[in-house]
Amino acid sequence: MASMTSTLSISPKSPKLRKPRSNASSVRSLSPQPIISRDENDALRRYVDEIVLTFVSARERGYNFSSVADCIRQTISTQIYEEHQLFNWLRNNQNTAQYTTLLGFFYFQGIGTQRTDKRKGFHLFLTAAKMEYYVAQDLVADCYCFGHGTPKMPELSFEWYQKANHNGSTDGEFGLGYCYDMGIGVKKNLVKAIQHYKNASKKENRSAMFLLGQCYDLGLGVERDREQAINWYKKAIEYGNTDAREPLEELLKEGNSESNESE
Questions:
Q1: 31 contact partners, CB below 8 Å, separation of at least 6
Q2: pTM for this prediction
Q3: Region entry Disordered: which residue ranges (predicted)?
Q4: According to the model, what pLDDT value does residue 17 have?
């Protein structure tokens, strides 16, 4: 459901509006792909492979769609090729699940193309997910969960988070926890939610860190523990989650107020 720069989501104080991710997009004109040499094709492949690594790392660390797109654009800005060149190369090289998923994300966020096409992006995610690619499975689950490029289908969202988690996705484990937390496609179970949040947090998923801190802050599924809440909020902030700042400040003020009263 995935630090570099702080632009990510995956919430307010009681009641909290939990939206781990949001979407943003920018556009660029699409140019036809010219015939390129083998050497240039190999060079483009290396650049795309670098972007794939950036993409997977950001997703697994709990970055939302728009934040992942920011990371990709930042990586592209350091290269000699432009967005539309990479987009065109991906369109002509759909021989791996990784490339299919990345092309879907380019459509989804309007990277290298004239406009966003979330429906097209979703179908590419689904194609790669059926090839057992855990990143695509996690993206499909997100799409079904939040209605991105497809109608909301809570039960399918839960099923795809399960598959992603089974295949090793840290963000898929976070998403599974989120489903148990919010009762999405499954009966609400805060004990299971917290266990999944803990597992994903240990693997540096900042969205899981934030919601784990929230559980300790509000006493959701666990006894309220201010120190644990502060600890996980701080970790979430360290990894770039800005949503944790406000509740952390509130807890620190609460602690200072109690200290002053005891003096």
A1: 84, 85, 88
A2: 0.84
A3: 1-32
A4: 43
Across the chain, mean pLDDT equals 88
Q: How far apart are CA 251 and CA 229, in angstroms?
A: 8
At 64 the pLDDT is: 93
Pair of tokens at residue 212: 């784990």
Render pLDDT for 88-122 as a digit per residue (tens, 0 to 9). Answer: 999 999 999 999 999 999 999 999 999 999 999 99
User: What structural domains and CATH numbers belong to the chain?
Assistant: 38-258 (1.25.40.10)
Average pLDDT rounded to a whole number, residues 25-46: 70
CB 141 within 8 A of CB 160: yes
Averaged pLDDT, 194-207: 97
> The tokens of 59 are what?
């997703």
Q: Using CB atoms within 10 Å of the CB of residue 241, give its burial: 0 to 12 exposed, 13 to 18 middle, 19+ buried.
A: buried
